[in-house]
Design goal:
By secondary structure, the protein is an all-alpha fold. Helices cover about 70% and strands about 0% of the residues. Helix 2 runs antiparallel to helix 5 and helix 3 runs parallel beside helix 5. The N terminus is likely disordered.
Length: about 160
């Protein structure tokens, strides 16, 4: 039996690999999340359009806006994890000390919380609720797409 006593390259110790990511950030899981979001939007849109053909613009605008804001959030999260995920794993910092953690949390609060709050409490309109559901599906899909693009670039 041969034992290798070579020292590991210090650059290798500070490099992020896909295998270090949690299960829900692996490429197949992110693809599954995107497919479920798209399937949910398709089923939701079909159900609504069967009953109300005049609400297609609410579905489209809600989904499109959700994809855009979800993608922005996914890019910010990917940038934050690319910079600080290894430090969080090594317990050098907590998640909240990572640069950008508070900003991404506040962004999600405003991007998801505020439209839902105003849509449900201030104006309980059927048309707005239809657009909100599409917005949520789009946000989830856009966020997972941005994360997928980042994870795909990481070495195995």
């Amino acid at each position: 039996m041969k034992i290798s006593l070579r020292k590991k390259d210090p650059r290798q110790l500070n490099k992020l690999y896909r295998r270090l990511l949690p299960f829900y950030m692996r490429p197949p899981i992110l693809l599954a999340f995107m497919m479920v979001s798209l399937l949910g939007q398709t089923a939701w849109g079909t159900l609504i359009l069967v009953r109300h053909t005049d609400l297609q613009s609410n579905l489209t605008i809600g989904f499109g806006l959700g994809v855009i804001l979800g993608y922005i959030h996914g890019r910010w999260t990917a940038r934050m994890w690319a910079r600080d995920y290894l430090r969080v794993l090594k317990c050098e910092i907590t998640f909240w000390e990572a640069k950008g953690a508070t900003g991404t949390t506040v962004f999600v609060f405003f991007a998801l919380g505020v439209p839902i709050f105003f849509g449900l409490l201030l104006k309980q309109s059927y048309e707005i609720l239809i657009g909100l559901q599409s917005y949520i599906f789009g946000f989830i899909g856009g966020m997972n797409f941005a994360l997928y693009l980042w994870v795909r670039r990481l070495p195995r």
